[in-house]
Amino acid sequence: MPDTSVQLRDGMLRSSKCIGSKVVNPEGESLGRIEDLVIDPYENQIAAAVVSFGGFLGIGEKLVPVPLSALSYDAREQRFLINVDKETLRNGPSFRHDAWPALMDRVWAADLYSYYGYPPYWG
């Protein structure tokens, strides 16, 4: 029997409510939290969410950008869901807190979107 439930939406979400939100996979495993959002001001888009992953108390932690289109918001639990396992996130493009890449580079962004299996928003 198909799911005929109605999914209510409250509307927009403030960026300050996104920062610090948990990120989990469908199994409920905690994968990290959203540290930042990457905005493309030329396309008026949020290009990616930067998720902190791994480490303990900030030691050994890396930042993993994921396309915003790869995340869905669970309003009931106030968290984001990404349909990947820990290994996929661990092996994805990443960087350290003190070594951010040139995020506006379309080649880098295209590789990021390709890794997660999403088409780039710019075309």
Can you describe what's shown?
- By secondary structure, the protein is of the alpha+beta class.
- The chain has one domain: PRC-barrel domain (SH3 type barrels).
- The protein has helices at 15-18, 86-91, 106-116; strands spanning 22-24, 30-40, 45-53, 62-67, 71-74, 79-82.
- Strand 1 and strand 2 (30-40) form a beta hairpin.
- The longest helix is centred in the C-terminal third of the chain and has 11 residues, at 106-116.
- It is globular, with a radius of gyration of 15 Å.
Please describe the structure with a list of short key phrases separated by commas or semicolons:
123 residues; alpha+beta; SH3 type barrels; 30% strand
Tell me the distance between the termini.
Answer: 37 Å
| CATH domain topology | SH3 type barrels
Total strands: the figure is: 6
Strand arrangement, major sheet: 4-3-2-1-6-5
Rg, rounded, reads 15 Å
Share of residues in strands: 25-35%
- The assigned structural class equals alpha+beta
> How is the biggest beta sheet arranged?
6 strands, mixed
Shape: globular
CATH architecture descriptor name: Roll
Which consecutive residue ranges, at least 5 long each, have pLDDT under 50? none
- Whole-number mean pLDDT: 85
The level-1 CATH class: Mainly Beta
* Assigned CATH superfamily: PRC-barrel domain
Q: Helix segment count?
A: 3
Q: H/E order of the elements?
A: HEEEEEEHH
Can you tell me the number of structural domains?
A: 1
Helical content (DSSP H or I, runs of 4+):
10-25%
